[in-house]
Amino acid sequence: MLGINWSDVISMLNLLKPYLIAFAVVVAVIVAVAVMKFSKPKKKLIRAQAGIAVILALGITANLICTGPLSTILTLASGSGTITEDTQAAAEQLGVEIADEGIVLLKNEDNLLPMSENKNLNVFGWASTNPVYGGTGSGAMSSAYEIISLTAGLENAGFALNNTLSDFYIEYRSDRPSVEMFEQDWTLPEPPAENYSEELLEEAKEFSDTAMIVFSRSGGEHIDLPQDVSQVSYTNNSDAYEDFPQGAHWLELSQTERNMLEMVCENFDNVIIVSNSANAMELGFVNEYEQIKSVLWCPSPGQNGFNSLGRILAGDVNPSGKTTDTFVTDLTAAPTFRNFGNFTYENMDEFTIDESDPFVGGTVPHFVNYVEGIYVGYRFYETASEEGLIDYEDTVVYPFGHGLSYTTFEQEMGDIIEADGVLSVDVTITNIGNVVGKEVAELYYNPPLYKWWY
Description:
By secondary structure, this protein is of the alpha/beta class. The chain has three domains: 6-78, no CATH class; 93-324, Rossmann fold; 335-398, no CATH class. It contains 13 helices and 16 strands. The strands form six sheets. The chain has a six-stranded mixed β-sheet, with helices on both faces.
């Protein structure tokens, strides 16, 4: 059965206002007629007819409401809000296909991936037992259907996992702190490195020479990610240090995560990093440790997308995704970072939203000052590099449009043809490797300078 989102219920009730107002008007008209100065027999007749009219108006209004704005809510509440098995199966298959083609292989040295033979895997990081599946608000997940966990996705692909590690993380904390539209606890529960016993590490090294580390970050609708985590609701994992010292932002590693990363790299020669975040984290650290051979970007995979992560690691699916953002060493150096925020107009108090609004009551209009123009993302970094402002190689870890494969492709671009103001071009892509795969053709167009005074 489909679940009810109560914020939608409130929105629906607001939509009912015109119907209720119309009903009130009809009743008022009927009452006005009913109290006219007629003789008693006529009054009795008119009032009887008015009563029937009120009942009829109420029935019509209720019918409009139930078959209109409230139809979906009533369907859900009655339990009849279901979809067919075929529709559900098709949706699940589409989710897998999206994840198959959306997960990006960022780095793969020494052909560590795919792991087609060595299927024993140590999975480090508390997020491995509590990854991020979706966003917030409209992007949040529904508990009405089975959700494939990260570890289940790996096991479904044939991997044998070190369950002692998983138990260790679950015992540390079994649930993920809530980061929702109207409630945020930005705590990242990550066991301090000193919590890992020598026995635990020795058992892990005997189990497999390969370690995967999962780093997750949540976020979504109605939530600005903290530029300074020390200023929001957050609980440290240790009394010995600050996970996020003053000024540290949400998309960099916490101190506990960094300590755990160093511990894993000291004990394993083959390390895989999985960035489970819809936002581009700072990934400069992946080039600081020679043990990190492979890196994957697995943003919010939804209900069953972690099956795809397992299939890609095992080589059952050849990754073909490309980055839709630019991964850099220092996000704070980007011009956009300086303009993040929720700035309030100081001269618009008359537009303050009524306190009765359950979501944004009492707030006044806000704004964000976009001063970068088109120079955001790759446009800034490539332009800044061309102008000598930055060293591109030191600044950009993985550029926009980057993504590796288990095979090799050749691309040949044909002539650009212009017809009736439309440019077209043919691109021939040839798989010259030994593995079946898909490739993305990326075309970048730099139009000629247009002078408006021509």
